[in-house]
Design brief:
Elements: H1 2-30, H2 36-41, E1 43-46, E2 48-64, E3 69-72, E4 78-83, E5 90-91, E6 96-101, H3 103-134, H4 140-167, E7 174-178, E8 183-188, E9 195-196, E10 205-208, E11 212-220, E12 232-236, E13 245-256, E14 262-270, E15 281-298, E16 303-305, E17 308-316, E18 319-331, E19 334-339, E20 346-350, H5 352-360
Antiparallel strand pairs: 1-20, 2-11, 2-15, 3-10, 4-6, 4-9, 5-8, 6-7, 8-10, 11-14, 12-13, 12-15, 13-14, 15-19, 16-17, 17-18, 18-19
């Protein structure tokens, strides 16, 4: 009997001790105060009601801007004497690309010599006619006729000089091919000692300015309603996986490809650093707005624990609440919540996990 009483007494002591510990623990929780040091380490953000943004993932390819691509054709035939650039080289406007030795140019040189000679003869005859007219040895009609011959010879010389300018004619029957714009040589179909026919219709160089590029992306039929001109886009390539290239939709091709059942859109992007190259494959993240709003918080403020999502709602350093929330969707650094918080409430978005552990352990 004595031992039974002792056991009962000991049970009561243990029970009271356990209760005291629980009370002490509850007191610690209820009297939690955020220190001044910790206040400086946290970040507070206000819950907002925002129009929900979404993203559409597309595949595409990079192309040069067609408005900044020039194909260079030879205006004469002949033998290629020199080629000074290679595929991929950057050239400046007016820079010599190649030189062609041409029989056609030799003929223009002969015409130039003849035109200059004819002008000298005509000017001399005009001078003689003027002297004779002053000496009353010829009529005014002869002077006028001589003057017209000078004008005809001058016009003929001017025509040949214009041809020289157009054809970039050099010395020794050389036809000089010059860059019409500054840019990169993206296509080359000419080599030294190559014979070029005068009736050749193919271009020998293609020069493109690559400071701005096009990204052509395919949009599936089910997503056509989600794209509009002016929407912002992020372009990613496997060459630069950690770099985002930003642009905007500037054209929608309102036709469907009969085979793929997709519609194409064009995104114009800046390429000042010359990192992107034509024919690169690209992944495009297209941002657009939904037609409804939800509460938005920084994605960093959401804590996932025990298969649930929580945020730490801050009222003051004496009053911080662990609040369960329902995540509707996350996009980049923003999370949209369908339940749990209201606009205007303040949440902790930095070092909130330390506070969560202190309040919920």
């Amino acid at each position: 009997m004595k031992y039974i009483l002792v056991a009962i007494l000991w049970s009561w002591v243990c029970l009271l001790s356990s209760c005291n510990k629980e009370v002490q623990k509850e007191n610690i929780k209820s009297t939690f105060v955020l220190s001044d040091t910790m206040m400086k380490r946290i970040k507070l953000d206000t819950v907002k009601d925002d129009i929900v943004k979404s993203q559409l993932l597309l595949m595409g390819k990079i192309y040069p801007d067609e408005n900044k691509v020039i194909e260079v054709y030879p205006l004469v035939g002949g033998n290629v004497k020199d080629v000074f650039v290679e595929l991929g080289d950057f050239v400046k406007k007016g820079e010599i690309l190649a030189v062609i030795k041409s029989g056609e140019i030799a003929d223009y040189e002969r015409q130039l010599i003849d035109a200059r000679s004819d002008l000298l003869v005509a000017e001399k005859q005009y001078s003689v006619a003027q002297d004779l007219y002053e000496s009353k040895l010829t009529s005014e009609r002869d002077v006028v006729s001589a003057k017209k011959e000078v004008e005809k010879a001058q016009a003929s010389l001017n025509r040949i000089n214009e041809i020289y300018k157009i054809y970039n004619i050099g010395t020794e029957s050389d036809y000089v091919i010059k860059a019409p714009i500054s840019g990169f040589v993206v296509d080359k179909n000419i080599n030294r000692d190559m014979q070029i026919r005068s009736d050749k219709t193919d271009h020998v160089f293609t020069i493109s300015q690559l400071d701005e590029l096009w990204v052509i992306a395919n949009v599936f039929e089910s997503d056509i309603s989600k794209v509009k001109i002016g929407y912002e886009a992020e372009v990613h390539t496997i060459s630069y996986p950690d770099k985002n290239f930003r642009g905007k939709i500037d054209k929608i091709y309102n036709v469907l490809d009969p085979e793929t059942k997709t519609m194409q859109i064009r995104i114009k992007i800046n390429n000042d650093e010359s990192l992107l190259k034509p024919e690169m494959h690209a992944t495009i993240k297209l941002s657009y707005k939904e037609n409804y709003a939800l509460s938005s918080v920084p994605a960093a403020s959401v804590i996932f624990d025990k298969s649930k999502n929580f945020v730490m709602v801050f009222k003051d350093k004496y009053n911080i609440e662990t609040r369960e929330v329902e995540v509707a969707k996350s996009l980049g650094k923003v999370t949209y919540l369908s339940k749990g918080v209201a606009a205007g409430e303040i949440v902790i978005s930095q070092n909130q996990l330390l506070i969560y552990d202190a309040l919920n352990d």
